[in-house]
Task: structure prediction
Amino acid sequence: MTVSKILISACLLGHAVRYDGKGKPLAHPAIDQWREEGRLVTICPELAGGMSVPRPPAEIENGMTGADVLAGRARVVEITGGEVTEAFIAGAYRALEFAQAHGCTHALLIDGSPSCGSGFIYDGSFAGKRHAGNGVTAALLENAGIIVRSDRQMDEMVDILARV
Ligand code: SF4
Result:
């Protein structure tokens, strides 16, 4: 039987890769089980794209989404004004290559991130305003047919994988 592998945001496993130098570990028995089964494939797309820790927070501008960034219609900008679109796109493609090289059919990514968000992202105003949409990596993975769910959808992901 082929076992589905799961790409997972590095910060969800507690790796200190977020912009603020912290992780955001998700405690869930399924994560422990998948880890023991050797099914987790870990990456931080922003670091894979060449960014460092810590780094200024970044958002996709003008209420646009990761799909807009991939289509060249939107930029990713840091709160300090720097543009990091290229790094975000490069990181998304590295994450996709990594996922495909490891046979990942599913991805569990942390929500809200301009890279990994899949349920919501922030609107580019740096005012804490959320809107529905994907980050750049989540959009690219979904375009490639990988099933993406957020950390807020753990139970749904468990159900989906139970049916595979
Ligand atoms: S890019 Fe993804 S894995 Fe990296 S810190 Fe942001 S949310 Fe976590």
Q: What stands out?
A: The chain has a mean pLDDT of 97. The two ends are 10 Å apart (CA to CA). Residues 9-11, 17-18, 44-46, 110, 113, 115-116 surround iron/sulfur cluster (CB under 6 Å). The chain has one domain: 5-162.
